[in-house]
Design brief:
- The structure is a single chain.
- This protein is an alpha+beta fold.
- It has five domains: 156 residues, no CATH class; 65 residues, no CATH class; 43 residues, no CATH class; 168 residues, no CATH class; 137 residues, no CATH class.
- The longest helix is centred in the middle third of the chain and has 25 residues.
- It is globular, with a radius of gyration of 31 Å.
- The chain starts with 5 loop residues before the first helix and ends in a 16-residue tail after the last helix.
Length: 668
Amino acid sequence: MRRFRHTAQKVAGELEESVREAGNLARKLGLKPYPVNYWVVNYDEMNQLIAYGGFQRRYPHWRWGMTYDRQQKKDQFGMGKAFEIVNNDNPSHAFLQESNSLADQKAVITHVEAHADFFSNNEWFGMFAGDSDLDAAAMLEQHGETIQKYMDDPDIDREDVERFIDAVLCLEDNIDQHRTITDAATGRERVQPEDLRKRLDEMDISQDVRKQVFDEEWLDELAEAEAEAAKLDDPRRDVLAFVREHGMYYDEEEGKAVEMESWQKDVLDILRTESYYFAPQKMTKVMNEGWAAYWESLMMGEERFAGTDEFLTYADHQSRVLGSPGLNPYKLGKELWEYIENTTNRREVADKLLRVRGVTWRNFHDVIDFDEVQQLLEPHPAIDRVRSDTLDELAALPGDDPRVDWEMLDRALSDDGEVDVDAYPWKVLTYEGLAERHFSLVKPQNRGFLRHIRRSELERLSRYMFDNEAYETVEEAIADVDRASGWDRMQEIRESHNDVTFLDAFLTQEFVENNHYFTYEFTQATGEFRVASVDYEDVKKKLLLQFTNFGKPTIVVFDGNYDNRGELLLGHQYNGIMLDIAQARGVLERLYDLWGRPVNLATIVKEYDEHDVEVARRRDREPTPVEQGKRIRYDGEEFETYELDEEITERIRATDVDYDTKPEEWLS
């Protein structure tokens, strides 16, 4: 534990054992977290850390003060208390608020250990560091010192640095988060075609000869063909990298765009690097928070890491976190992880039962006694009720039983007080033993899960089953059930998925029905919200829109020499949700500071005819909008809006997604 100040030192001393044993328990459960350094901080320091994104030092900017003020007001008015913050680093650093109760501190510590496991094992977090050691705290501190140096430089106007940072931050999420920072920077190099007329103007050729040799119509066709060929075949998702390669800034004294100065390129590189560092946290919010909530709940509640006198406080803590209104990543993530565990375990049990002589997918529900199966799945009594006075029952198991940690059991039986089995019963069990002890299908809330298996799933399991008479009895089949299959599968998924692939792969109709999810929409006809669907495909689509590109509009580079005039053309990859045009214009103003020349944004807007809206209202249906392609152009002084070329419109047009609601309104 890291200790500083008298109060913090006292709290740290009280938490030494909890920190040590939470890490031991996490590893017993199969987690492989980064080592974690815990720091005890006061209320004000916690708010500062939240403002800085979990780090103690960042570059100077007004955004941190704004975030600090917002967090302080949330605490002050009871809108959300900060229990902890942990960052993705090796070792990870976690900060505990000294005013938390011991029950809250234990909950935070178990939660943090699961986060550190996710950081260490999820491949999207690994993309940033690659094979090198991760030291994010040192990197961000160095970034802060570099930018501070530029702000203190007498040859650089501090306001210019602040304005430049503001411009870059408007685009901080416009990166290619599915590639590494190095790979995303590569792309087809933009060829800047030059109109042949300029070359002819520089040559000493008479007008008569020029007209005879170079036909104007041919020159027009050539310029158009070269401009078309120069367009990017594949839009560049990393807008920041493209601006870094080709951007300039407008020099008011010279009245033209000039090359960026070295400090500007350095600051842009720094902020782009930080965008890639924080991207995995945004891409895995549901998975990561759900993962931490799942293991925290198992450790604190089911494995009794919370003491008897602490459990009610912990239960209140957990209910407040999971009961937060709106789209709650803790709740959605935890429910999905539990569903994955249950379906994997159900598939494992059903697979064994379908191999019992006489059992087929057709008669499964008729011949299987689910009450008998439930009893057979219960953990062995010696595994289930580990206490100091029941250790003899555990010792009576066969000496090669993989569920028992025999070394720890011997130490516990030595009666020297070294192993406190009553406080930490998990110490004498292995991963296999804990998996049996916490097998999900025997938990009260899941006792009907096996009998609700669909015939279609049973048929799929049977389709490629050759040894379908491997067992004579149900008891023999259940004895072969791998109780760790659910946890094993969860760990596999934790390694490779992000929120989008996680939801796409595992959100099913059964999950939507069991957990009461639905979609709702704003109706143009009535001006009210209404439930739109309880179909899992609809719920999934809206959730995927929420998490694709961090839930923000996807903007890509289509052309860096639009219309052969050196203008930037960005395209909004339209998914049925219109841009906020006022915000889009604000971003274009900032982008102009980074490009130095006119900037364009292609998008699609929906237009409603007032008469159609009125007719739809009378008939209680939704009016059909007309989608129009628009190009918004900003030249540094004013905005102009043009009809968008049909070719570009088609490249950004929506397919089958058409929702009128904003992301924060999509799900309840």
